[in-house]
Amino acid sequence: MTRLSVNLNKIAVLRNSRGGALPSVSAAAEVLLAAGVHGLTVHPRPDQRHVRAADVDALTTLLQEHNARGVDGGRVELNVEGNPFAPAVSGYPGLIELVRAARPDQVTFVPDSDSQITSDHGFDLSQPQPTLRALIAHCHDAGARVSLFVDADSKDVARAAEYGADRIEIYTGPFAAAVAAGAHGRALDDCLRVAEQARRAGLGINAGHDLDLDNLPILLAAISDIAEVSIGHALINDALYAGLMATASAYLSACARTR
Beta partners for 169? Predict the structure, then answer.
């Protein structure tokens, strides 16, 4: 079964828009844990627009306590996303330092910038990026596997393995847009090709961005060995109407029945 990791950034956006502590990122995480999700994802940025370093600390403690109880369903993982090249600023120590402190199960490198509303492209692996090797090694030293965010039409995925990455995460934004437009064949083919590149290179496959209950079954039926999907925006949108527990359960069912 494909594992579901829920991105908590949108909860933090609501909190930060008002100030104070509500809605609580940790309280939302507890509801998701009760629903049986397989992971929690956070993407702290230097501008601290949503999840912050303190949230990562709190979620690390929450998951340690949850996993220590041995709840049915297995270990729930923490996935920390971010740009490993972004400099440290006040309140944001940098991705590698966050990883050293939190020791998450997975780190996803994303080449985003503060000027982007959201992540909208993967690493250009057609150009050598040897610095990635040392950054990935730092994360391995902290006990985390590393996934690189890549575009579905990337043709150089094997370089991710050369740098020491364990997985790729397919950027599924264009695929989701194509499904919404009613013509997703070419976009899905791109996802299939990049997944095959990953398999040949010995890399695991994750996927994320704009996935929802309409397009997720299409993707998972086509690529049955996707290890994990990271979903935030659509899931939180659905939860506004159906509730967080019920919505998480619906996404878990979508992940399960496509196997």
Answer: 149, 206
Out of 81, 169, 184, 228, pick the active-site residue: 81
Q: Residue 89 has what DSSP assignment?
A: B
CATH of the domain at 217: 3.20.20.70
Do the beta carbons of residue 106 and residue 98 sit within 8 Å? no
Round to whole Å and give the CA distance between 170 and 218. 15
pTM score of the predicted model: 0.95
In terms of residue numbers, what domain contains 204? 3-257
Per-residue pLDDT of the chain (259 residues; tens, 9 = 90+): 899 999 999 999 999 999 999 999 999 999 999 999 999 999 999 999 999 999 999 999 999 999 999 877 689 999 999 999 999 999 999 999 999 999 999 999 999 877 666 776 788 998 888 899 999 999 999 999 999 999 999 999 999 999 999 999 999 999 999 999 999 999 999 999 999 999 999 999 999 999 999 999 999 999 999 999 999 999 999 999 999 999 999 999 999 976 5
Q: Is 81 a catalytic residue?
A: yes
Residue 92 is classified by DSSP as: B
Report which residue type is found at 252. Answer: L
d(CA 51, CA 27): 14
Say which of 38, 169, 209, 228 is annotated catalytic: 209
50 is catalytic: no
- Which residue is catalytic, options 43, 50, 77, 169? 43
Q: Is 43 a catalytic residue?
A: yes
The helix (H) or strand (E) run that includes residue 236 is helix 233-242
